[in-house]
UniProtKB/TrEMBL annotation:
Location of the DUF5129 domain: 34-370
TM segment ranges: 168-190
Key words of the record: Membrane, Signal, Transmembrane, Transmembrane helix
UniProt-recorded name of the protein: DUF5129 domain-containing protein
Keyword match Transit peptide: no
Pfam families associated with the record: DUF5129
Signal peptide interval: 1-24
Ranges where the record places region Disordered: 451-484
Gly residues bias locations: 460-476
Amino acid sequence: MFRWTRAVLAAAMLVLLGAAPAQAVSTADGDLVVEDTAGTLYLPQIEEELAEVDFRVPTTVVLYTYRGAASDNMNELVLAYARDSHPEWISDDGQKWADGLFILALDPDGRQVGTYFGEDLAVAQSDQTAIQDAAKEEFASGRWTEGMIAGVESAADIVARPWYASPAVIGTAWVGGGAAAATGMIVLFVRASRRSRFAEQLERGTTHLTTVTMDLDTTELAARTLPAESPYAQRLEQRFADFSRRYHAAVEERNRLDGLVKKERSRSAAVRTATAFADETADMDFVDDAIVNAAALLTKAPTWEGAWAAQVAPVRDDLAAIPDLAQEEGAAELPSMQALTAFAATADTEIERLGAGLRDASLEPGDAMRALETLRERLSELLIEHSRAMISVYADDEAEREAMEEQFEQQRRTGRARSGSILDTVSAPGYYWSPVSFAAGYSAGVSEVETSRNASSSSFGGGSAIGYGSSGGSFSGSGSSSRF
């Protein structure tokens, strides 16, 4: 549906000229407008994934982000922004949203999401809630871009939906004696979804397996040249010990999965198996990259600098993400946040020192790896301390503290290795904690606590806010917002 024009150069000029962080990408016919004043969205991903989204009727989709507070009336703020910056979003009489308009709004700080519709696209409150809930699944983990995409995809499914495709009609058909037909429709949808996920996971696994196959000879040669005295080489050799068996098993599994017929691919067990295959081949891909890098680095082969860069990259990424943690409410003034900020500066200097030592041969590769390992362990310790501090700020009682601790730990456990990293490959998943997984854990913890609080006493009356506040006047456009 979405036809794009390129505004990249214009956006770059705005940045160079010191303009506000808002970025807008729109088409000549106004199909998509992105107003990312919060600076949370990744436009290339939005462009790629929404290019295939089709609404049933011509629709101008607006993605609007801003930074507010939980106490704000999002509806009122969205309307005020439209009146000030985009009057074309409002009907000529000023009382409704313009026809053909759908707005998906996000406040990552106040943790609110809103949906707003032109009168010709208006949907029931239950459908608005469904669209918001689709986005919340990603927002709760701090995946802002993915949440916006999920919300638009849900809206495309709901807006202008034929009467016979609505859940209410399907439910009526069930109660009224059409259970068999309704069941058939649901089963078809579920099976199609499973086949789609199966195909995605099979493709992911096949991509990794192809890379492993192409690099197999290089990996085996690198494994034979690992210096026996290096503890990192020894730990990698343990990971490589059954690599050949795993590889041949993966090839057989790929062939088996590829041979499954449509009916077999529609089963949930097949999706789980394909996902396990993709995870296994991804791990093998990371192991062989780490072995090649270790052999090059530890023996100072001609390609050692590229291998060292692969080890440093995860640390640099983590250091670059530390300032984002200070954006959470109450974080900036905490001693734990200040310790992280100070660590980022010293760690960056240490990385430069290690690289210089390797280049002038004043530092052995094994010693450089140990120093890098110390940096990553220290960062993990500081993040643990900061998690305790943030929990103390947000949680009101022991139950809330335990809920947040569990979310932090869950996100840490699901942390995955980064390709080519020796330390990630030889360590258990989640051994090193990154600011990204920390932020996801905090977001998930806050979401769980907020859900519990709202269940007992919600200031949004059932979880949704519908009015436009005192400044809205007589405006009565279709829309609502809720928390996540």
